[in-house]
Amino acid sequence: MRLAVSLLALALAAPLSAEEIWVTNEKDDTISVIDVATLEVVRTIPTGERPRGITFSKDHSRVYICASDSDTVQVMDPETGEILHDLPSGEDPEQFVLHPNDRHLYIANEDDAITTVVDTETRRVIAQIDVGIEPEGMAVSPDGKIVITTSETTNMAHWIDTETRELFANTLVDSRPRHAEFVHGGTELWVSSEIGGTITVFDVASQAEKAKIAFEVRGVHPDRVQPVGFRLTADEKTAFVALGPSNHVAVVDTATYEVQDYILVGRRVWHMEFNTDKSLLFTTNGVSGDVTVIDVARREAIKTIKVGRFPWGAALRPGT
Amino acid sequence: MNFLVKSAALLAFGTMACAAQAEAILAVGYLKQAVVAPAVLSNLDPVPETLGVDGARLGQADNQSSGRFLGHSYVLDVSEVDPGGDLLAAARTLLATSPYLILDASADDILRVADLPEAQDALIFNASAQETRLRDAECRRNLFHTLPSAAMRADALMQVLMAKRFSRLALVAGEHPADRAFADALRRSAAKFGLKITGEREWRFDADMRRNASQEVPLFTQDLPEHDVLLIADETNDFGRYIAYNTWLPRPVAGSEGMVPVAWSRVVEQWGAAQLQSRFVKLAGRDMKNRDYAAWAAMRVLGEALTRTGSTDPAQLRAYILSPEFELAGFKGRPMSFRHWNGQLRQPIPLVTDRAVVMQAPVEGFLHQRSELDTLGIDLPESRCTAFKE
């Protein structure tokens, strides 16, 4: 009886929408949509040129895509896959972050050394902030007061005050910073450095460096251990860090900054995304053109899913 | 006010955050000895007049972008000497204002400048001469090399040929000194990696190959012994372009033509290189070449050193760039650093055709106890350079 009821519930739920991971394929100009229940690609949607950063609006009714070589941010209806309109993004948008107000997109313009702020409602550029060369990593504090842009060649994290939209601090990190996240309720900022091979941890209140996390994969030369994207579990006790061409994901204790484990995934692992209950982690593997599914509790890779060429970004679309 | 106090506190921590107070100016001289280019058969590819200089300019702009957040400025002073002009006088003038000098000149001219009494405490970067001897017996304490040596290029090529199991090689070399030097590097490297050069021919034609390559080259290569790949040593780009598809045996060509080991090429696009390429094209209106890359790297080395140390003192910067702490992100997938025994920038070498990267050396499987990058070029145990021993 209970089975019948849950089957019925499933039957009712299924047509609405399944839980999905959306993956941008940088060299195919497409998005691969993975069904979390079946772990299979169910849709492939065309985008503008060189799609990289991807994020959903708060209610998941819109998906924003950095179409880098089309010099635009595309706004797509995730239901139909139709491009609704383009946002003025500045040149070569690579990565962005949506402010907690669900309205302002902070966009890194990789070729222009600028962070562009776009109002997604009026579709206007409301500010452009000069940052270092090749801005890429973008993060916003949980209270929305600080936005971070990291610059790959300048090797800095630039701290933007979202009230004044001006820089209030610039902090050096190791070579080629790629990704930034606020951790522990916004009291810490983590910045990964691809060539430096480290994550620098800053105390947000003082912008002072607090710790540095280093990685060491057995049998892989240190030069190839290149931290890029990373994500934290729901309790923020554990971080998963993509280590690029070492083809591993590191598991880091966020209290002690110690690496607990390394998980073998596909080649040149780049970014990652959890499913809704954060029991599964999906990593984009650029060179092998696939996505590795990691069982978060067991810390094991359980499946490889073929997607398009050079998968880059990943974003969750929860089921309804 | 609050902001200033905070910055001061951070400086005390040594994090160098918001160090707008630490004003510093780093001036760099760029000295080019113009040469009369040797005559070549084809006029298809003229050498850009701003070769090298444009790379230094981009390096300056890249440095400046970090510098403005730290209160550091970078000045580039370009000086060009006409063929036969007084290079040493120009070098003295530049060294009088700054101890940092990027040189675009021949190997012998570079040594003349490095040996000037005024240059003894300077940091000179060789961005133009691939002669291995400058990194070996003829190395100088004040001379660093951002351009890969001929030995590094040859080793990169041999690793790729070995990975592809092309073990029998034949060699065609020109008679220009640069061709002979590169041919020597290829021979030494083939021996190092256990590949066999089965036969050699020297290019001595003086005919115009645009008209008769298809008739001459098959005969020229006909009596070479059996080989898998034909190596070409033609560093002035004279005859090499006429060899491919005209050989007696259908064989791929590599070396100065075909698959070429380079410091840089427009076809390098991975590891964020696409961004460096587009910045360069925007600045120079042309593609970035080997010497541009070497000059860019020299500027970036100095920028990285000032950023991390906050110092403009040449002795301090020299010590820093030779230390294990130094690393440069050079858009070739691995951090680059200097060999402490001869001042050569260790770096990956892409093997390229006109249209794509074939492979990049060091090739997987070539291991080294210190850095796989040291499988390319002169390694510590074989180095005859003594100037870097303190």
Report what the structure shows:
- The complex is a heterodimer of chains A (320) and B (390).
- Chain A has 320 residues and is mostly beta strands.
- Chain A has a domain of 127 residues: 7 Propeller (Methylamine Dehydrogenase, Chain H), CATH 2.130.10.
- Chain A is built from one helix and 28 strands.
- In chain A, the strands form seven sheets. A four-stranded antiparallel beta sheet of chain A has the order 3-2-1-28, with no helix packed on it. Chain A has a four-stranded antiparallel beta sheet with strand order 4-5-6-7, with no helix packed on it.
- In chain A, a hairpin with a 5-residue loop joins β20 and β21.
- Chain A is globular, with a radius of gyration of 19 Å.
- Chain B is an alpha/beta fold.
- Chain B has two domains: 230 residues, Response regulator (Rossmann fold); 110 residues, 3-Layer(aba) Sandwich (Rossmann fold).
- Chain B is built from ten helices and 15 strands.
- In chain B, the strands form four sheets. A five-stranded parallel beta sheet of chain B has the order 2-1-3-4-5, sandwiched between helices. A four-stranded parallel beta sheet of chain B has the order 7-6-8-9, with helices on one face. In chain B, strands 10-14-15 form a three-stranded antiparallel beta sheet, with helices on one face.
- In chain B, α6 links the parallel β6 and β7.
- The N terminus of chain B is likely disordered.
- At the A-B interface, β15 of A face α1, α2, α8 and β11 of B.
Most extensive contact: A-B, 33 and 29 residues
Task: State the major sheet of chain B.
Answer: 5 strands, parallel
Radius of gyration of chain B: 22 Å
User: What is the CATH architecture descriptor of the largest domain in chain B?
Assistant: 3-Layer(aba) Sandwich
The SSE string of chain A, one letter per element, is HEEEEEEEEEEEEEEEEEEEEEEEEEEEE
Q: How helical, in percent, are the residues of chain B?
A: 25-40%
What name is given to the CATH topology of one domain in chain A?
Methylamine Dehydrogenase, Chain H
Question: How many helices of chain A?
Answer: 1
Organism (chain B): Ruegeria marina
Family (chain B): Belongs to the leucine-binding protein family.
Keywords (chain B): Amino-acid transport, Signal, Transport
Protein name (chain B): Amino acid/amide ABC transporter substrate-binding protein, HAAT family
